[in-house]
């Protein structure tokens, strides 16, 4: 790794961190590249060198978050119960970081529109998480560890929807919803 | 009912219908009372007579929607399996009206902030739906119709979260998510 390359990577990371902070305060639509540059302590032209558009910056923020989540929670473990438990551990991490959950929930709801800059990201994201959960439920089914009548694909869609829906419900009435316990109860309820 | 009162009610309904159309196109934040008045064919001052603020109009739109849903789908039926099935029928109605689902999902995600004009509405809304579903699951439990180990309150939170999460997932990838079938499967999976 050359010094210049390393410096570029650090700068890129600083910009992404600044973007998360600005989105958290002003929302994605209410934010500007100029504001993110200011927060990151670089010039607007300097930021444009790394991220030529607002959309490119948003995509990089979301993808960095997924990569960090996958590494921290070992989401790439072999399909099976561990992956599903690690997704619950991710939810537990998110509960301790409500700002991230808030940003993600809003973006997911806005990005259902095909012309939204994060639409393609969410299409890919949902496919990836559903496929991963589905493979894990299938492995459980193959070992006779899934309750009779539970379809692995339906359980995967349910599990992902439950994570998303619980986040909004919990953010709205935090004292009335135990997000992590509810997810655990769902997982337990489909195991044989 | 006097003629003047009736005329006022009709005018009020026209404004609410216009508001739903404008929110659907521009989003709540991107809309203005002036635009809604124009769509409803009345003056700005005329609209202010019925709804003095943007927030008051939003609250009335959401409450009218709940009242319409409750009446059409008989959500006020005595607690039990019928209420839960009627909530699934409501989801089926929503699938045929994606504009409503889109508006609702976005607002729910934005309104987690305590200072959002629809925050109090969503706090009340979630409490009401959770309580209603919870009572219905409890009636099933009392009749031995709920699977052993299923807690009525947890099942209610799960059911509501599932409706919300499935809506966003379905709007993002409509061909890959069967919203109504997934809800039905969940309900079947907790019945004895």
Automatic annotation (TrEMBL), chains A, B:
UniProt-recorded Gene Ontology molecular function terms: DNA-binding transcription factor activity; transcription cis-regulatory region binding
Residue ranges constituting the HTH tetR-type domain according to the UniProt record: 9-69
Record feature DNA-binding region, as residue ranges: 32-51
UniProt keyword Ribosomal protein, yes or no: no
Keyword field: DNA-binding, Repressor, Transcription, Transcription regulation
DNA-binding among keywords: yes
Gene3D superfamilies found in the cross-reference section: Tetracycline Repressor, domain 2
InterPro entries on file: BetI_C (IPR039538), Homeodomain-like_sf (IPR009057), HTH-type_TetR-like_transc_reg (IPR050109), HTH_TetR (IPR001647), Tet_transcr_reg_TetR-rel_C_sf (IPR036271)
Pfam family, one: TetR_C_6
Name listed for the protein in its UniProt record: TetR family transcriptional regulator
Biological source species: Actinophytocola xinjiangensis
């Amino acid at each position: 790794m050359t010094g210049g390359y390393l410096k570029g990577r650090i700068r890129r990371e600083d910009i992404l961190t600044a973007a998360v902070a600005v989105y958290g305060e002003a929302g994605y639509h209410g934010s500007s590249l100029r504001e993110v540059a200011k927060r990151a302590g670089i010039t607007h032209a300097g930021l444009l060198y790394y991220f030529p558009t607002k959309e490119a910056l948003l995509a990089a923020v979301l993808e960095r978050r997924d990569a960090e989540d996958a590494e921290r929670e070992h989401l790439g473990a072999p399909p099976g119960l561990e992956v599903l438990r690690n997704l619950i551990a991710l939810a537990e991490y998110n509960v301790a970081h409500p700002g991230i959950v808030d940003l993600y929930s809003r973006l997911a709801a806005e990005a259902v529109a095909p012309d939204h800059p994060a639409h393609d990201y969410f299409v890919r994201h949902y496919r990836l998480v559903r496929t991963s959960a589905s493979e894990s439920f299938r492995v459980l089914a193959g070992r006779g560890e899934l309750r009779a009548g539970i379809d692995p694909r339906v359980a995967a869609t349910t599990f992902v929807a439950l994570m998303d829906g619980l986040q909004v419900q919990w953010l709205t009435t935090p004292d009335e919803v135990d997000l992590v316990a509810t997810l655990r109860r769902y997982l337990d309820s489909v195991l044989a």
